[in-house]
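Need a sequence for this fold. Nothing fancy.
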């Protein structure tokens, strides 16, 4: 493997690019070597040693004292994970440019939030975007429109690692210029190394920044919270993970545990098969990781420079088409930023309201954030105060998978303030002014069509077959 990576480096001609590329190959080789060691030694967790976190390892948001001032904002920087494409929702380009609310994209809303914060408190909180080689060029074009706004936007890239063949474990690319399918961005656990290698880490520290608030670019609930910021500084914590209570939709989410006296993140992939149902239990593991993280910048620098961050490796199996048109099985070795919590001092979790976890992974999620459940306030989504209980459980079928199909079939978002559960499958179209309440299930069989006309009010109904409703 080392010789193969050296050969890849030899294909780079520009000297500056060569240095950067060689550094990336060095970090990849260290990751690869650790993967082989872990695989050989077997580093599975001992289930009997897993304990619930102690009272000081997971605290409740409502028990945190509100700050008297906003002076700690001068110590804050915000980072959005912006490496993902919108392909899973049928879009081309960065996921952050999907329109989600009132003509605003994910990125628009993030910028509006930080800009309002800076204007309201006369602060200078910068916004950093962690791109991948898939999203970098498009993102640079997009952020030009914010040049006149009261916000400093900085971008830097995740590493670019070679995929390896699953059978031989040799790198897929033979040249640094090989097809993009031969490479991959190694997950958000690469944040620490990329932040350091880009120079952005040192730049932030020189500006007097101490805390980095990290969240997924598609989580519309991840806004700056002064209570958590102040709590982190008061407790001298180097790492805070926001947790929120599990629902039926979140049973696979990672959770904090105490393992050998140390706080750690437990992911479902680490759980022995015989304990998976126990892991999914809402009674034993009550909350899960939102991936809203507060991390001390100087601690990142200390750990990176001492090689002190060794997060669990996630081998992700993929299949790609080679130059001969053949499908081949490959591996990409990834890490998650949440798994690094065990390396930081005074690290703990804060159980936050569900409103701080509002991700958009599918068009089912998109329906929720576009609906009357929320209103927009300075770039942040606020839950309508008349809504009672958790967000409705919405399941849209494959006909709604792509954003373009979703917009075509639901051109006008229905009112769902009193909705508990919605399932729609098949060739279904909703008209204007539709109101959904309680449990609504609409199932259209293959080759048929169901149209819900304008102004329909559907409450606790099941609709099936080939139907155009004429009365409501």
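Here you go.
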């Amino acid at each position: 493997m080392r010789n193969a990576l050296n050969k890849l480096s030899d294909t780079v001609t520009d000297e500056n690019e060569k240095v950067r590329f060689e550094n990336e190959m060095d970090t990849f080789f260290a990751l690869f070597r650790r993967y082989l060691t872990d695989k050989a030694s077997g580093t599975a967790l001992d289930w009997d040693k897993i304990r619930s976190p102690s009272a000081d390892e997971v605290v409740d948001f409502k028990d945190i004292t509100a700050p008297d001032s906003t002076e700690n904002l001068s110590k804050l920087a915000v980072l959005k994970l912006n490496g993902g494409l919108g392909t899973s929702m049928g879009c081309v380009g960065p996921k952050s440019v999907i329109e989600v609310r009132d003509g605003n994209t994910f990125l628009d809303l993030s910028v509006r939030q930080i800009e309002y914060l800076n204007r309201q408190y006369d602060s200078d909180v910068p916004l950093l975007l962690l791109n991948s080689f898939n999203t970098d060029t498009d993102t640079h074009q997009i952020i030009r429109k914010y040049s006149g706004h009261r916000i400093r936007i900085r971008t830097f890239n995740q590493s670019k690692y070679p995929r390896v063949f699953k059978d031989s474990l040799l790198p897929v690319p033979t040249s640094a210029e090989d097809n993009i399918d031969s490479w991959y961005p190694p997950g958000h656990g690469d944040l620490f190394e990329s932040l350091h290698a880009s120079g952005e880490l040192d730049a932030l520290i020189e500006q007097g920044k101490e805390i980095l608030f990290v969240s997924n670019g598609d989580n519309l609930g991840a806004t700056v919270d002064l209570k958590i910021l102040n709590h982190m500084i008061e407790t001298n914590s180097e790492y805070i993970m926001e947790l929120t209570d599990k629902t039926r939709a979140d049973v696979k989410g990672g959770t904090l545990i105490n393992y050998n006296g140390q706080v750690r993140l437990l992911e479902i992939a680490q759980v022995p098969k015989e304990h998976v149902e126990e892991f999914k239990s809402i009674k034993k593991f009550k909350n899960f990781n939102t991936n809203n993280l507060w991390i001390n910048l100087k601690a990142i620098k200390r750990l990176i420079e001492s090689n002190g961050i060794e997060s669990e490796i996630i081998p992700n199996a993929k299949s790609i088409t080679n130059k001969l048109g053949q499908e081949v099985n490959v591996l990409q070795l990834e890490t998650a930023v949440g798994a690094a919590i065990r390396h930081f001092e005074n690290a703990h979790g804060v159980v936050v309201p569900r409103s701080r976890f509002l991700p958009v992974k599918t068009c089912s999620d998109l329906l929720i954030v576009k609906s009357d459940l929320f209103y927009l306030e300075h770039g942040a989504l606020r839950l309508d105060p008349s809504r009672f209980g958790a967000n409705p459980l919405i399941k849209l079928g494959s006909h709604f998978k792509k954003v373009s199909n979703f917009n075509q079939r639901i051109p006008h978002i229905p009112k769902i303030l009193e909705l508990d559960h919605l399932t729609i499958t098949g060739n279904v179209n909703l008209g204007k002014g539709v109101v959904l309440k309680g449990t609504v299930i609409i199932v259209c069989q293959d080759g048929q069509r169901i149209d819900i006309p304008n102004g329909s009010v559907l409450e606790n109904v099941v609709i099936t077959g080939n139907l155009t409703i004429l009365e409501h």
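For context: The chain has a mean pLDDT of 91.
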